[in-house]
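#lab-general

N.A. 3:47 PM
ok so I finally got the sequence cleaned up, no stray characters, all 171 residues accounted for. can someone with queue access submit it? mine expired

B.Y. 3:52 PM
send it over

N.A. 3:53 PM
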Amino acid sequence: MKNDLQSELTNTKQDLLNTLNLFDQENINVVPFEDSWTGGQVAEHVLKSLSGCLQNITGPTKLTERNPAEHVKQLGEVFLNMNIKMKSPDFIIPSNDPKTKALLIKSLAESLDGIKIVAGTEDLSATCTGFEMPMLGALTRVEWISFSLFHTQRHIHQLKNIANHLKTQTA
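B.Y. 4:20 PM
back already:
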């Protein structure tokens, strides 16, 4: 399981960084269409989420008294379903400030690398007690890491759509 998660984190990180490189410093802060975040805002949202996940999986834990992967399938079904529109919790909503592409890329890579280290070195069955997922409660490390993958993959899809839209606007 650890090797699979580490491999998936590596692949997701590479996909995210490649996708962010579809943007340049000028268009990363451009709103592509009405009611959309900019590419930079999506990246900041992902960064806030990954940073929170990393903090949670390196924080306090307790022994798990259920299947440690119990919620992984459900998390994947929800976050990888692009037909479901979601509302972000306030604490990970991005600011309206201009974003620096290079800084976003560096910070996102560092967060994903940190999660990958935890995935390879810590007890993934432990339940994290620092923050509870709305509607699911306390999640295990394997569930939080899976969430971070699914959530990031969801927003990679969104970033690709934004980049394509911006490309057609300037073509």
